[in-house]
Write a structure and sequence with these properties.
- Among the domains are: 126 residues, Rossmann fold (3-Layer(aba) Sandwich); 37 residues, no CATH class.
- Helix 1 runs parallel beside helix 11 and helix 3 runs parallel beside helix 4.
- The two termini are 13 Å apart.
- Strand 7, helix 6 and strand 8 form a beta-alpha-beta unit.
- 42% of the residues lie in helices and 21% in strands.
- The protein is of the alpha/beta class.
Length: 255
Amino acid sequence: MAVLITRPQPNGEPLCKLLNQQGFATLYTPLFNIEKGRELNQLPTKLQNLPSGSLVFAVSKNAISYANQVLHNVGSHWRSDLHYFSVGRRSAEYFTALSEQPVLYPYPNETSEGLLGLPQMQDLNGKKILVLRGNGGRELFRRQAETRGGNVEIIECYQRIAKEYDNIEQISVWKRAGINTIVVTSNEILRYLVEFVPKNDHNWLMQCHLISISRRITQLAKAYGWLQITQTARADNASILETLLLLKKQSLKNN
């Protein structure tokens, strides 16, 4: 099994290292760089102006990292009179460690839909909600929260910038490396991957085993025509490793 890792930093290289330690042949080709968001510098003022009891939602560890850094840079802090939420357990633990505040997350449905199902999200009439995310995030949460009476504001804490490669040369490298498994960690990466690979190589691409970290990625991959898709239990590197180890074990058993 030769695995292509497309996950951006800071999680991409640690994932490769983790897989290499377990005997996987990996190739790291991040398709996006993660950079400071265009609205990040507004965060300290926006956070300070929130009424007591307002809700703050962090969509990912990238959003948390950049948000925490800008607060630290201006000598500000995470207020103790606000309610904090994250999408998943790992990001909630990370948010708690940096903010020193309790952070809630939906379990076991660690998604935007899960967040919307929390008791705290049922009556949002008059509530101020601040969402920390990257560029091009989903609008489902915002729409539903506003429908329930919430006043939602989005802060773009980070942005994904597509990396430039020679696609013909890069795909040749992937094929020579024997890539037959691809790890995809966002819909944006999957869309870019499909656009990046020329049409005459789509048959090869769709025959690669796709490792997806969410139901949304899985659904999009099926729509594109992927033949083999395995979805991890969670989005973290440990879950990706666990999934690949299981697939490797099954492959050895079948052979």
